[in-house]
Design goal:
Radius of gyration: 16 Å
Shape: globular
CATH class of the largest domain: Alpha Beta
Largest sheet: 4 strands, mixed
Strand content: 25-35%
Number of helices: 3
Distance between the termini: 20 Å
Helix content: 10-25%
Number of strands: 8
CATH topology of the largest domain: 2,3-Dihydroxybiphenyl 1,2-Dioxygenase, domain 1
Strand order of the largest sheet: 1-4-3-2
Oligomer: single chain
Length: 133
């Protein structure tokens, strides 16, 4: 089995598409007003699903966390500590919710957290060197 991508269940599709496209630079594959939207970031598939559409499709109701949640994070990497600070400021200026300003951690990573419009945590971090997978 191979990982194909990952997705978020969202209330307001248009707002969430604009956030991930315009604030974080994800590439959108469809119109922002559909019930399933495919976005791509650095070759990774990222899906947004309308919560009501998913519930209708599965004939079930689900519970969702409200506000900033700590169920998971989306991690974005930049090459330098300076870029962490710059990307944090840029994202907040474009409407991201600041959660934790940039800090250099004891393990040598500079990291910060923002949240998208529905409270999902996004980390921007660096070990002050180019990404090496």
């Amino acid at each position: 089995m191979k990982l194909d991508g990952f997705g978020l269940f969202v209330n307001d599709m248009a707002t969430m598409v604009r956030f991930y496209r315009d604030v974080l630079g994800f590439e959108i594959k469809e119109d922002e007003n559909t019930s399933n939207v495919y976005l791509i970031k650095d070759g990774t598939l990222f899906l947004l699903y309308g919560r009501q559409d998913f519930e209708k499709m599965t004939s079930r109701r689900y519970e969702y966390t409200k506000g900033a949640n700590g169920h998971f994070e989306i991690a974005l990497y930049v090459d330098t500590f300076e870029e962490v600070d710059a990307e944090f400021e840029k994202a907040v200026a474009k409407g991201a919710v600041p959660i934790m300003p940039p800090e250099t951690e004891s393990w040598g990573q500079r990291t910060c957290y923002i949240a998208d419009p529905e409270g999902n945590l996004i980390e921007i971090g660096s070990f002050n060197k180019p990404f090496n997978r």
